[in-house]
């Protein structure tokens, strides 16, 4: 089996200009992610699919291969699946793909290890999730509860919560992607702690991530003292 790590990083981000290169601890998000992917040592090759020259330059700095993605895969409407399928047209020897999101800055190598073990074992796809304890309601004038009974409102400590995708990574067999699926067959998941599940989508997210990293460093320093 050939398993590749793939980061989709287009240049036309809207919420944050050049989001994939936004700085955290003085380092672009893309480079942070590539470092973790290399540390994991679970990929036969690591690729960045981009339409942007600057992102391509940073990808090479991060010792990743660069795939120049077609323009139709880099629009606001294009899905990740379309971009992965376009990448695979040029890499027919690939068996498994791990789509890694570089806007999940707290990714760890151990999480990727758990995901690849599943895809190399008895699972057809595996992906990252986070446990949420949100009480959900339907939209509309007469809203209804979706995941709880109002007459027996669950306490957080008595409720396991819901498993929700957090987008950090998706391991998938190419045979599924060719069918138009990022997940399918026998699915497995890797549960990521809430504190590592932050996704960068707004400037506020960057502030929160930096504050959390600084706090964690301070806690570790105090333990050493």
Protein model, in words:
- This protein has about 220 residues and is an alpha/beta fold.
- About 30% of the residues lie in helices and about 20% in strands.
- Strand 2 and strand 3 (about 25-30) form a beta hairpin.
- Helix 1 packs across helix 4.
- The termini are far apart.
Question: How many β-strand runs?
Answer: 9
Runs in which pLDDT lies below 50 for 5 or more consecutive residues are: none
Total of DSSP H or I helical runs spanning 4+ residues: 6
- Using only C-alpha atoms, the radius of gyration works out to 19 Å
Give me the strand/helix succession: EEEHEHEHEHEEHEH
For the termini, the CA-CA separation is 47 Å
Sum up the overall morphology in one term: globular
State the secondary-structure class: alpha/beta
The proportion of residues forming helix, as a percent range, comes to 25-40%
Strand ordering within the main sheet: 5-4-1-6-8-7-9
């Amino acid at each position: 089996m050939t398993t590749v790590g793939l980061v989709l990083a287009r240049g036309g981000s809207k919420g944050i200009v050049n989001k994939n290169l936004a700085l955290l601890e003085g380092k672009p998000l893309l480079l942070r992610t590539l470092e973790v992917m290399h540390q994991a040592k679970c990929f036969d090759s690591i690729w960045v699919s981009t339409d942007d020259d600057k992102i391509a330059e940073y990808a090479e700095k991060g010792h990743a291969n660069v795939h120049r993605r077609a323009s139709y895969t880099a629009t606001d409407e294009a899905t990740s699946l379309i971009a992965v399928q376009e990448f695979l047209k040029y890499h027919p020897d690939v068996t498994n793909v791990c789509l890694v999101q570089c806007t999940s800055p707290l990714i760890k190598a151990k999480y990727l290890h758990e995901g690849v073990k599943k895809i190399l074992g008895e699972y057809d796809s595996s992906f990252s999730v986070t446990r949420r304890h949100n009480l959900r309601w339907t939209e509309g004038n007469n809203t209804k509860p979706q995941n709880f009974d109002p007459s027996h409102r669950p306490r957080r400590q008595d409720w396991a919560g819901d498993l929700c995708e957090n987008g950090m990574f998706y391991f998938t067999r190419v045979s599924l992607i060719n069918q138009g699926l990022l997940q399918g067959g026998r699915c497995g998941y890797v549960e990521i702690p809430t504190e590592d599940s932050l996704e960068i989508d707004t400037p506020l997210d960057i502030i929160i991530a930096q504050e959390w990293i600084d706090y964690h460093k301070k806690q570790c320093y105090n333990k050493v003292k």
